[in-house]
Write a structure and sequence with these properties.
Blueprint: E1 2-12, H1 18-36, E2 39-44, E3 53-60, H2 63-78, E4 83-94
Antiparallel strand pairs: 1-3, 1-4, 2-3
Helix pairs in contact: 1-2
Length: about 100
């Protein structure tokens, strides 16, 4: 079994409130879940208007499938015009580790 995760640190565009932040993040997180079939959530920077932490995780039998899902998630986030991707961290672990 392979477990993979990816964490995004985006800078959001012209956001002035937490309500505006949610209006940008909710559709993005829903799209990540739907298009990658992985778990996605806001995982950090909850109190800042223009910053967010977004995490995606996946479990699969093959490491290549995990990598494909994480790559797809990264492309989805990087292609969003309303945010600037500051950093991306990822991990891949086997249940044998």
């Amino acid at each position: 079994m392979w477990i993979g995760w990816i964490e995004f640190d985006p800078l959001l565009g012209d956001i002035r409130s937490l309500k505006e932040k949610r209006s940008v993040l909710r559709p993005l997180i829903a799209e990540l879940s739907r298009r990658t079939e992985a778990a996605a959530a806001e995982v950090g920077e909850h109190d800042l208007h223009r910053r967010a932490g977004i995490g995606v995780s996946v479990v699969a039998a093959e490491s290549s499938h995990v990598r494909d899902v994480l790559d797809r998630a990264e492309r989805l986030v990087a292609d969003r015009p309303e945010l600037t991707l500051l950093s991306v961290r990822r991990g891949l672990h086997s249940s044998e580790d």
